[in-house]
Amino acid sequence: MSQRVTLITGASRRIGRAIAEACLARGDRVIAHRREADAEPAPYSGPVSGWSWDLNQALPALPEAEITDLVLSASMFERGQDWNALDPAGLDEERARMQRHLQVNLLAPWELALALQRRRPLASVVMLLDTYLDRSFPGHAAYQVSRAAGAGLVRALATELAPTRVNAVAPGTVLPSVRDPAERAEQEGAIAARTVLGRIGAPEDVVAAVMYLSDAAYCTGEILRVDGGRFRL
Asked: Dihedrals φ, ψ of 112, to 5°?
């Protein structure tokens, strides 16, 4: 069996980096995407090949390696305004914010997947979304819309690119968004109270789901929520 070559976007930090490490442990050859060419992420546990692309810019030349698997982890999240209170200036800001979210969270992944597929059919594509892809909150609408569109993209790609398998993982909270220990504990407690399993998750929970879907030979077009049941409450 030839070696699996996995390209992971957003592989420099957080979940993307954890996925890269899991792929290395599995024996994959890893292509680690980062936004800036001159960025120097901390060393990985094994050799990786770097590839840079600012997802707001045109798609550059693809990595020279023939990619067999793609994990779309890179994304953007930017808080916005309550749409019910927008003045003309606020509308312009939200339009630009919507365009940024759709570019990074929808159009760039779509373009990359198709470019790689055109060069050599992929075995698997796994995209990271968000458990709240079908719920919206004031100030978060642009992000939520882009994630809902991402869910549609996964299902469309599964149909369009078959027999390439295309699936998604929709995580809940697995990493704290604040650094202060007291604030972090308060945040985690509030999230746990709104979760069926009564706790927040860990990056390893998301990584396990990604690895499963990358190997699931009879699974495509699926969106697997990894959120401890939070979306049900």
From this structure: -65, -45
Residue 155 tokens read as 């299902």
Q: Report the percent of the chain where pLDDT is more than 90.
A: 73
Looking up tokens 């954890």 gives 18
For the CA atoms of 136, 137, 138, 139, the dihedral, rounded to the nearest 10 degrees, stands at -90
Task: For the full predicted model, state whether its pTM sits above 0.70.
Answer: yes
Contacts of 104 (CB under 8 A, 6+ apart): 55, 56, 74, 75, 76, 146
pLDDT at 26: 97
Residue 215 corresponds to which amino acid? D
| Backbone φ, ψ for residue 167 (5° rounding) | -140, 175
CA distance 199 to 202: 10
Q: How far apart are CA 53 and CA 34, in angstroms?
A: 6
Task: Report the residue count for the chain.
Answer: 233
**91 CA to centre of own chain:** 27
Token couple for 79: 């808080």
Nearest to 73 by CA among 135, 15, 145: 15
